[in-house]
Amino acid sequence: MNEFLPSRYVELVKRLALGIEPMDAIHARQLSYPLRVEHDGAHLGLRRPPIEHHTSNRYALRYQPNLPTSVDLRFFDLSDRFYTPQNDRRRIVPRRLRIPILSLTDVETAEQTDAQAANTNAKDFKRRIRRPLFFPGAAYAFNTTATGLRGRVTRGGKPMRWARVEARLNGTSLIVGRAHGDDRGEFLLLISSRVTTGSTLPKPLNIEVKVMGPATAPAPSSPDLPSLDPLWDLPLEFLAAPGTANDPVAIGEQPPNQPPAQNYTASVTRTVEFTLGKCLSGTADFVIT
Description:
The chain is mostly beta strands. Helices cover 8% and strands 32% of the residues. The protein is globular, with a radius of gyration of 21 Å.
């Protein structure tokens, strides 16, 4: 039975299961360049439902038979089809997200139940749209007058991969910046203009920089795993249910919290004196023990 057309026509209806709009964490707007988005396991040649990239720089997954209730997706910035550290453009730091999906039955039921209500379908449509934030990588383009810090995180004398960074104005609870560390242990922390809110600028501009990492360093399941999958230890982050407002995972505020290797409870905090309008570099490493 057709839903929209008379029965004499052949009708084929395609419904959106998941829409993804990657966002720039610094400017709170859509990224102006495409990312590579793929399923976990795609690098091993495992078949997965296709992720469609549209010219609007948005991504879509349609309902189809045997679609799971959630998908694990990797996001990275590539100059070639397959991920290697050499072809990562490093404009953003990669993320790996588990995204719940509404069942087709739930969507159809909502549409039928609320068909008489204005904009109901539009509201339900928005529940299927996700806008995860992506944080600056080493090659991120930013204003030369920005206030920031290029830092490095180590553990056991080696770069600690995939750190999380939080900056607070010294002596206050005001968060003035966040950053994600990359596979080299490097991060680019850009300080928000909120740091200058008020009648006077704090002098010196002291900011508490907190760097977080997993409680225990992850270990590969086999010696050849890092060469087979350069993103083997990229933490899997669990997004909230569809329709949740201000999901702290999607916007990068909540560090990974899946134990044991992804439980980001190890941390080190240092007070750094920033210079307004300058990006600092060459500072001592942040060491996670």
